[in-house]
Amino acid sequence: ALSHHENWQRQWRNPTPKKQYDVIIVGGGGHGLATAYYLAKEHGIKNVAVIEKGWLGGGNTARNTTIVRSNYLWDEAAALYEHSMKLWEGLSQDLNYNVMFSQRGVLNLGHTLQDMRDIQRRVNANRLNGIDSEVLDAKGVQELVPIMDCSKNARYPVMGASWQPRAGVARHDAVAWGFARGADAHGVDILQQTEVTGFKIRDGQVYGVHTNRGDIEAKTVGCVAAGNSGVLARMAGIKLPLESHPLQALVSEPLKPVLDTVVMSNHVHGYISQSDKGDLVIGAGIDGYNGYGQRGSYPTVEHTLQAIVEMFPIFSRVRMNRQWGGIVDTCPDACPILSKTRVKGLYFNCGWGTGGFKATPGSAHVFAASLAKGEMHPIAAPFSIDRFNTGALVDEHGAAGVAH
Length: 404
Ligand code: FAD
Hints:
Blueprint: E1 23-26, H1 30-43, E2 48-51, E3 67-68, H2 75-88, H3 91-95, E4 106-110, H4 113-128, E5 134-137, H5 138-144, E6 160-164, E7 168-169, H6 172-185, E8 189-191, E9 196-202, E10 205-211, E11 216-217, E12 220-223, H7 229-235, E13 243-252, E14 262-265, E15 270-274, E16 280-286, H8 298-311, E17 320-330, E18 337-340, E19 346-350, H9 360-373, H10 387-390
Parallel strand pairs: 1-2, 1-12, 2-8, 4-14, 12-19
Antiparallel strand pairs: 3-7, 4-6, 5-6, 9-10, 10-11, 13-16, 13-17, 14-15, 15-16, 18-19
Bound molecules: flavin-adenine dinucleotide.
């Protein structure tokens, strides 16, 4: 069958940049591509360019551990992530592209009494927001994951967990490709190998971008550049409250199916699931230093694997296949920025840090509506940059899953 694969159609065009568009999206990761898709599909704005300096999904979109859940503590964050979850539930059908969304459930483990109190509080808050969430004791966790060490002999014994059954994982590059194909089919120009090097701003209004392929004009520019958002903002004279850090992940050699859910532990600090190929997909905490190199340091990997082996002694002799890093843009309150700026027409969607993959459809859906209407969508509004002046922060460090 492979020999008959030569006449496959390209999934999206490789157009020459036009001089002018209605909207420019900077960043061809999942969020940027999805924003363009919803702009075209839901708002009829099709004269759109997605400008990507590398290749589609080459940023964090295809470097992440693909955990999707919506069990956040505060109403504002819960509304955003649950909006996304509902879109995930119909995404493969909407895009006619299999994003392999697998609702296999996510466990957030508790190892201390305080962990369990926090879990109880978060689960209560989730249920008040209509989000599926349960508290499990150690026995309940053991029943779900028989291969985990839930004995009292562990250094930090598992006392219980929060459990979101609708949560799960998806196929990261399929998400980028599915949105890219969908956007392209609506007429969006996807410009790869095109780097934004500056903004054209006159009288406080953006009217385009400088790129390595020439200037391109648009009166609405949405920046969705994850770890490079601070760099882009500086080009417009804006300082964002972001720090860029490496975040690492690694995958093992493929194994037969042994783990059919997702396990996260903030306390011993590691998270793990098994991909459909059989690899164990393992995530770490952020590396402590700031940087833009997509790798990371060895001690972080070592610490993570210690945590994984502590929880799963059965994996102690599994060999690791690959390791990599992405650059995550962390915000002081572990929540994103979806916001206008003081430059008219220039918007930022960033600060997703270690947890933005799960938000891809939801973030893009409300960001597209905001760009189309010139007013932030009600679900996006609490995530304005202004919150760092007013103090109306949405502190999601507890629910964020990865310490930073
Ligand atoms: P990206 O995919 O990074 O896209 C931004 C794009 O902008 C890049 O392709 C970049 O090349 C482009 N760009 C930057 N500067 C310019 C420029 N000047 N001109 C043109 N293009 C530019 N989230 C979860 O929800 N669940 C997880 O399990 C999870 N695990 C993670 C594990 C790791 C190791 C990492 C690194 C991240 C993880 N995340 C997770 C976070 C998640 O990956 C990100 O929040 C999300 O993918 C961000 O998507 P994006 O589209 O905004 O960014």
